[in-house]
Design brief:
The protein is α/β, with parallel strands linked by helices. It is built from 17 helices and 18 strands. The protein folds into 2 domains: 152 residues, 2-Layer Sandwich (Alpha-Beta Plaits); 251 residues, TIM Barrel (Alpha-Beta Barrel).
Length: 448
């Protein structure tokens, strides 16, 4: 039996000996650095010449699947076929080097812009991804790339390799084929881990607090609702904004547990105000898409309302357009069930992101909260004024309530009054405040 293996690529057959002696590109021997001598030399030389460079690490994304299916020899043959395919596409001074099975590195010198990096990555991905016939087996190889910049992210080859692999991991199942990873990303990642731990501890130590921001009926000035806004209180008394921790809590699923605490706490607070004889028609809670996917949401909400003597009609859930965008049958089912039980549903921050008027026509909606970016431009350009005016009449036509967010000055408040907007919320009327301060505000607002 011949010791030769055949690689057929784009109709051409290449004969190889199993030691790879005829492999189309030399494979660098491993050195003490995992990156290999050639790539290290390239990076260090760029660094010493004061040139910026990118380490691009690319791998065959289905490599391990192929090797598990067809055996290790297949893997070696696939690597060789790939390098041969790329040879014509890469410049002489950018030789691809094997780092580990199915993974290669290349140094792009003088790449300073995102666009230049993308162009080089595209060249490799498009050049290498495609149909091959390896050892008589037709298959498809798919490439993906992780990149890190030298010296801006690091001037240490090992660290650059670490960053580039991090980028590859971050690619995950996304449709993208190239991603970079910087020191900033690493710091963000570290902060995220710290925040995850801090949130767990804060829940245990009851250091989450709710502030409340009243909503006012534009025509009468009466308090028509109250939005609960969560903060994390540090042991030194400082408070962390939800903008810092909610996205992380949404990402790791912590928002579900935190959300249940928020629902119970807000219900208890509303009950306290009611017991004190203060009028708060309802309480609004921000609800993340992840919470709507949790099967217990309805049950926990009903229990929280029942335990505090409230009705489900005392509650309003604010969901973002993103939630509608990611809408699944499950989410739609939960929203419909909540609404059937009496919970009012509001679209928060309407007008940002992927606004779709179709959401407004969606049956289970009750209220639209117009994003504060619209109000911020009131009086500055006629077109924004016309959009808000249009929103007011559209909401009316659809039988939806309209809440204008971010009222920061008298001019905006007057404008809302003039166009007949129902409800307003914003710093000019009241900031989000601790429950005790809101109690005072309610007492004063009810004084004849
Ligand atoms: P949001 O639901 O749109 O809340 C309104 C945000 O705008 C609040 O910021 C509020 O303090 C701020 N705001 C109110 N009036 C004005 C104004 O006149 N001018 C300006 N510039 N800002 C105003 P906050 O409390 O930092 O909350 C930010 C976001 O965090 C919320 O946006 C919401 O998406 C999220 N969030 C807050 N609490 C919760 C919660 O309990 N659960 C969930 N899932 N998300 C929450
Ligand atoms: Mg909100
Ligand atoms: Mg909002």
């Amino acid at each position: 039996m011949s010791s030769e293996r055949k690689i057929r690529q784009d109709g051409k057959v290449v004969h190889l000996d199993p030691r790879g002696a005829t492999s189309p590109l030399p494979i660098a021997p491993a050195t003490s650095s995992e990156l290999g001598a050639t790539l290290c030399r390239e990076l260090l030389s760029a660094r010493s010449m004061g040139q910026s460079a990118q380490l691009l690490v690319f791998r065959i994304s289905n490599y391990h699947l192929l090797v598990d299916t067809f055996g290790p020899e297949f893997g070696t043959a696939a690597e060789t076929a790939l390098l041969k395919q790329l040879r014509g596409l890469l410049r002489r001074r950018e030789p691809a080097q094997r780092i580990q099975p199915g993974e290669f590195g290349i140094v792009g010198r003088g790449i300073r812009s995102e666009a230049a990096l993308k162009a080089m990555a595209d060249r490799i991905v498009k050049g290498g991804t495609g149909r091959y016939e390896i050892n008589g087996v037709p298959c498809r190889l798919k490439l993906e790339i992780g990149a890190a910049a030298c010296p801006s992210d690091s001037d240490q080859p090992e660290e650059l390799l670490h960053f580039a692999r991090f980028a590859l991991r971050e690619l995950g199942d996304s449709a993208d084929s190239c991603r970079s990873f910087s020191r900033q990303d690493l710091n963000r990642r570290k902060a995220m881990f710290r925040m995850e731990a801090e949130m767990e501890k804060a829940l245990e130590e009851q250091r989450f607090v709710l502030q409340y921001q009243p909503q006012f009926a534009v025509s009468t000035g009466a308090v028509s609702g109250m939005e609960a806004l969560v903060r994390l209180e540090r042991s030194d008394g400082s408070r962390v904004s939800p903008a810092e921790f909610i996205p992380i809590a949404e990402d790791n699923g912590f928002i579900v547990r935190l959300g249940y605490w928020i629902i119970r706490e807000a219900c208890q607070q509303l009950a306290r105000w009611r017991q004190a004889g203060l009028s708060v028609p309802r309480i609004s809670l921000n609800v993340s898409p992840r919470q709507l996917l949790d099967a217990r949401l309805l049950e926990v909400t009903e229990a929280a309302a029942a335990e505090t003597g409230l009705s489900m009609t005392d509650l309003e859930f604010e969901i973002t357009e993103r939630c509608m965008l990611e809408q699944s049958d499950e989410v739609a089912g939960t929203l419909t069930a909540l609404r059937q039980r009496g919970v009012r549903l509001a679209i928060d921050d309407f007008g940002t992101g992927y606004s779709s008027f179709a959401y407004l026509a969606w049956q289970p909606m009750d209220i639209v909260k117009l994003d504060r970016s619209f109000l911020a431009r009131v009086g500055e350009d006629d077109r924004t004024d016309a959009v808000i005016q249009g929103m007011v009449s559209m909401a009316r036509q659809l039988g939806l309530g309209l809440v204008a967010e971010g009222v920061e000055n008298e001019q905006q408040a007057n404008f809302l009054r003039a166009v007949g907007c129902d409800v307003a919320q914003g710093f000019a009327l009241a900031h989000p405040q601790d429950p005790e301060a809101i109690t005072q505000l309610l007492i004063e607002s009810e004084r004849p």
